Amino acid sequence: MERMVQDPVVSHVLIYCDREYVEKANARKRGVGTEAQIISQQVYEKLDQQKFIAIFCKMDDSGEPYLPTFLASRIGIDFSSDERVNENWEQLIRALHGKPRFEKPRLGGIPAYLEDDSARPSLPTVGKFASLREALLNSRPSAAALRLTFLDTAMEYAEGFRISEELSQEELESRMEQDLHALVPLRDQLVDWVLLEATTVDDGALLETLTDFLEKCLSLKYRTPAMTRWNDVWWETQNIFVYEMFLYAVAVLIKTNRFGVLHDVLSGSYLRPETAVSGGKHFCRIDEFDGYSSLLQAKNDRAKNRRISPVADLIKARATRKDLPFEDIMQADLTVFISELINGSGDWIPKALIFGERSRLKFFVRAGRHSDFLKVAQVFGVDSADELRTRILGSLEQSRFRLSSLSFDGNVSPWNLAHADAFDTLP
Asked: Measured between alpha carbons, how far is 144 from 124 in angstroms, rounded to an integer?
């Protein structure tokens, strides 16, 4: 206790304050009382000290923080709930490093925070996800309500990046690049959430949850009912975000061995948002989650890069998660493609597979073993390897023209990437 005051190596002391700590500190009881006596002398003698930082862990019935008498006049940091931790974490980090958010500007200058283009607001979902995680891990009945709040907040945040005004082509491309970068933390948090759900709830609940989530995502790809004028490029950021989220959701289901749920997700129907209903068609299949960007394509064409798929380039560059590397995303893309090929319209474009020449997609490689092929069979709803091969080959013939635009040939063909010749050939 004395060392934390006297040792110059100790730069800061965090004092976590709740009712029990305050009662012992004020009454000078036991070790807490001794600690309070040592600290209080320093606090009273050095009014401008920044070494001792109070952390409010609890509030009293009147909403005031529990603070011992010797800290009552000090400004602390509110960590009384998960949401407060989310809001004030940066404040603590800045205090520890002596970098306040607001500094007095130099005479004639502007505040430093106005020059910092990298600063972004923290996700409004962090505290809500923490509460949901605790509820799911402990099977609390509040999980359903917390899940709804978390997802609604996530969708509202993603919706906030929607463009609603005329911009130049250059401005649109720049805005899309910035917004997609800003949405990576939300993408990763939603992936963490799908991983959590996939490891805590049963098949029925997981399917219902994912269906609701994916239908919420679809609303980001289209105009809102209130919009009377619009340009489809205004929400191309959301288009790519939704496409990416769908691929990651499929990758998570493969990773967590939820093959029955994956089959239902891939073969399911999804309610379109009101503004996407045409000809009385209220439902769509998974090809609706496919992603395309005219802005990225225009930029690619203007630069004469001759890239096969700028969207695939983007998804690969953004595949920064170690637990779900880009090979997992390619694997998910191939899974969606085969499912849509043999069961749906065949309109899914497996763009990520253009990088597949030297890749080994383990879900399909392992399907050479009988026990692992049964997992593949469950996903695609077939009874045998011969049935799956026949259905893939027949459908590929019909879609050859479309696939030629992505240069699928030789070792990069979906057939070879799936190792279809070897399905169920080993015990």
From this structure: 19
| 251-310 residue pLDDT tens | 999 999 999 999 999 999 999 999 999 888 999 999 999 998 888 888 888 877 777 889
pTM of the shown model = 0.73
Q: Kindly give, in sequence order, each residue whose CB lies less than 8 Å from that of residue 12, ignoring residues fewer than 6 positions away.
A: 50, 51, 52, 53, 95, 96
Query: Is 408 within 8 Å of 349 (Cβ atoms)?
Result: no
Encoded amino acid at 23, one letter: E
Q: What are the angstrom distances between the C-alpha of 375 and each of 259, 386, 391?
A: 7, 15, 17
For residue 17, give the amino acid letter: C
The residue among 340, 386, 336 whose CA lies nearest residue 361 is 336
Q: Which pair of structure tokens corresponds to residue 116?
A: 């910092």
DSSP for 304-349, please give it: T---S-HHHHHHHHT---SSS-HHHHHHHHHHHHHHHHHHS-----
Per-residue b or e along 180-204, where b marks 16 or more CB atoms closer than 10 Å to that residue's CB: beebeebbebbbebbbbbbebbeee
Q: 66: which DSSP letter?
A: P
Contact predicate 145/153, CB 8 Å: no
Q: How far is CA 348 from CA 243, 291, 337, 380, in A?
A: 11, 9, 6, 15
Domains in the chain, start-ordered, CATH in brackets?
3-115 (3.40.50), 160-422 (no CATH)
Neighbours of 16 (CB within 10 A): 12
